[in-house]
């Protein structure tokens, strides 16, 4: 997401980095470049105009700040304005001890049904009792799709009654939610290929009947400004309380996200970042702005690790690595932990300072498929070979390659990767704890790395996770 904008802005900042002072001509040149970058990222023209005017007012107000470089000044101002444009988000407005209805709205093909299941799973993991109900009697197999998603993820779904009308389904869902004491009832409404009067009238009636706590528009980020227009139309006709933007992982420009809040007048609450059932993340303007500006999303990386990595296994592996005992079993464990985190390329783009290399990452042979191929190579080895990789010579490589269904070159690449990792672990052992802390402090000077160095910030995510290892 935002690849185009991130690369364009990175070029602006690189150019400013060579300037000694922030002159008026440099300001004008930079603002023009930023304006073009925003427009090419498909940000709505009114939003771009406001963005640039606010930037100009701030730069003029700051005059020339000599304490920092021009590029740092502009990065800060762009970051602040991006956060302002993206707008504040909030948690779902679900009251305790009452029936909370969440109305899911949107056009056909926006990912509404899948997102309904993702949201239900997210709420269920937080301890809420959730009931799903499909009101889509128009799209073939829409109700069955929700039922299957529910079965796959352990979610309660209202049973299908053939021939039932949407309003009747809504009434039955409300009764069932009350009988089962559900904390939240998610109503997956029908979409159309385009907005029409009949659709809006039906949705208005369903909203009147269900009295939802949240009316959420599910919009496809790939639609660009069409998604913004759709949001504005739904907001005017039905009334919205929030937006969930889907297929964010496939949208390189990101203009819809930047335009949505300003144009629709409601906050972005969640982003759909993949196909998996848990690929729904809470919207955070500061973290998104950080990604756009190449500062990464360290907090996102830490949260993902806490949620998906087996902490005990990771700790044991780390202890072996720091003690200098590192074999292919440890590498296999390491690779499996990484695979659990999700899309490898997406995770890499969350690393501070790496945004400018986004295209190279996309083209590189770095993927979860690569990890699985390397895992197959290790699993084709004998226990002795895994413990003692040095014994793996030509004949053994041929046998391992045949067993894994790969080429000998793949085996060689895996072994080279192991050798490089083992060598790095030896360096870490030589450095000792004091040396490691010194290295981490130096890394703290990198954009975004200060978040990792802040023990209080880490402790707020997980009290047991601090750099010093203290509870």
Q: How does this structure look, described?
A:
The structure is a single chain. With 471 residues, the protein is α/β, with parallel strands linked by helices. The protein contains 22 helices and eight strands. It has helices at residues 3-17, 24-40, 45-62, 70-86, 112-125, 142-153, 166-179, 197-210, 225-237, 255-264, 285-292, 298-308, 311-322, 328-340, 344-348, 358-363, 368-379, 383-387, 394-404, 408-443, 450-453, 455-461, and strands spanning 100-105, 130-134, 156-157, 184-188, 214-220, 242-246, 268-272, 280-282. An eight-stranded mixed sheet has the order 3-2-4-1-5-6-7-8, sandwiched between helices.
User: Can you write the helix and strand succession as a string?
Assistant: HHHHEHEHEHEHEHEHEEHHHHHHHHHHHH
Please state the average pLDDT score: 79
Count of helix runs: 22
Beta percentage is: 5-15%
CATH homologous superfamily (4th level) name of the largest domain: P-loop containing nucleotide triphosphate hydrolases
CATH architecture of the largest domain: 3-Layer(aba) Sandwich
Strand order of the largest sheet: 3-2-4-1-5-6-7-8
Given this structure, which CATH class of the largest domain is correct?
Answer: Alpha Beta
CATH topology of the largest domain: Rossmann fold
Helix content: 55-70%
Distance, first to last CA: 36 Å
State the low-pLDDT regions, or none. 63-67, 439-471
Helix-and-strand structural type: alpha/beta
Number of strands: 8
Categorize the overall geometry: flat
- Overall tally of structural domains: 3
**Cα-atom Rg, whole angstroms?**
26 Å
């Amino acid at each position: 997401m935002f690849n185009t904008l991130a690369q364009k802005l990175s070029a602006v900042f690189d150019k400013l980095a060579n300037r000694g002072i922030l002159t008026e001509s440099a300001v004008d040149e930079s603002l023009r470049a930023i304006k073009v970058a925003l427009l090419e990222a498909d940000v709505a023209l009114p939003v771009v105009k406001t963005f640039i005017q606010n930037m100009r007012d701030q730069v003029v107000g700051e005059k020339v700040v000599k304490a920092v470089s021009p590029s740092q000044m502009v990065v800060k101002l762009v970051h602040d304005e991006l956060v302002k444009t993206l707008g504040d988000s909030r948690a779902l407005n679900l009251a305790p001890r009452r029936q909370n209805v969440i109305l899911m709205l949107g056009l056909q093909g926006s990912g509404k049904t899948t997102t309904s299941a993702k949201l239900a799973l997210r709420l269920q993991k937080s301890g809420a009792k959730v009931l799903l109900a499909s009101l889509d009697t128009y799209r073939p197999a829409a109700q069955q799709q929700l039922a299957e998603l529910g079965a796959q993820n352990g979610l309660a779904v209202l049973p299908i009654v053939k021939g039932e009308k949407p309003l009747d389904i809504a009434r039955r869902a409300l009764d069932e939610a009350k009988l089962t004491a559900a904390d939240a009832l998610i109503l997956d409404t029908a979409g159309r290929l385009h907005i029409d009067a009949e659709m809006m009238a039906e949705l208005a009636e369903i909203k009147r009947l269900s009295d939802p706590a949240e009316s959420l528009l599910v919009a496809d980020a790939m639609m660009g400004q069409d998604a913004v227009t759709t949001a504005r139309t739904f907001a005017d006709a039905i009334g919205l309380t929030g937006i969930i933007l889907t297929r964010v992982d496939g949208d390189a420009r990101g203009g819809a996200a930047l335009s949505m809040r300003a144009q629709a007048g409601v906050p972005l609450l969640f982003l759909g970042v993949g196909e998996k059932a848990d690929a729904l993340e809470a919207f955070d303007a500061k973290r998104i702005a950080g990604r756009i500006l190449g500062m990464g999303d360290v907090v996102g990386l830490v949260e993902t690790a806490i949620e998906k990595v087996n902490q005990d296994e990771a700790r044991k592996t780390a202890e072996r690595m720091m003690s200098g005992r590192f074999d292919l079993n440890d590498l296999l464990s390491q690779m499996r932990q990484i695979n659990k985190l999700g899309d490898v390329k997406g995770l890499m783009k969350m690393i501070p300072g790496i945004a400018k290399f986004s295209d190279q990452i996309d083209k590189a042979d770095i993927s979860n498929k690569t990890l699985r191929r390397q895992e197959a190579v290790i699993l084709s080895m004998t226990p002795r070979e895994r413990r003692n990789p040095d014994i793996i010579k030509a004949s053994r490589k041929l046998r391992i390659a045949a067993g894994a269904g790969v080429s000998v070159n793949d085996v060689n690449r895996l072994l080279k990767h192991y050798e490089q990792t083992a060598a790095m672990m030896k360096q870490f052992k030589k450095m000792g704890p004091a040396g490691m802390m010194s290295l981490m402090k130096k890394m703290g000077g990198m954009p975004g790395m200060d978040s990792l160095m802040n023990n209080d910030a880490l402790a707020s995510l997980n009290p047991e996770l601090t750099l010093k290892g203290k509870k």
